[in-house]
Amino acid sequence: MRMKKFFIVGIILCLLLSLSSCGSSSKFVGNWVCAEEHPGYPAQIIIKADGTGSFEGFPCSWTENDGKLIFNVGNAFIGTWKYDYKFSGSKLYLDDYSYTKK
User: Fold this and answer.
1) What is the pTM of this model?
2) Which sign does the torsion angle of CA 71, 72, 77, 79 carry?
3) CB 82 within 8 A of CB 64
4) What pLDDT, in 10s, does the model give residues 33-52?
């Protein structure tokens, strides 16, 4: 009986943990395009749910932490780019520059 309770509690904890992460990154997922060019900001970002994507055509990984979108860009263009972000309607803002999902 005691083992069954531990098993049930374990399953409930696993479900709660998996549900708490659902949807957290989905708002970022997509092909984001900035209408204007700005130095130090990508014209296009592709963000995938698995934490990978494309930053100006270069493969990258991305995370969100403490109100910042962080892109680790590899291959020929190596660097880490951090931007404050916010959503307003259907637009994603990196600092003050707006991106539209295509």
Assistant:
1) 0.72
2) positive
3) no
4) 998 999 999 999 999 999 99
Round to whole Å and give the CA distance between 23 and 88. 17
**What confidence score (pLDDT) does residue 9 get?**
36
Find residue 38's DSSP bridge partners. Answer: 41
Q: How far is CA 8 from CA 4, 18, 20, 21, 91, in A?
A: 6, 15, 18, 21, 42
Task: Let me know: does 37 contact 43? Beta carbons within 8 Å.
Answer: yes
- 25: Cβ contacts below 8 Å, ≥ 6 apart: 49, 51, 64
Residue with tokens 């659902």: 22
Return the amino acid letter for 41.
Y
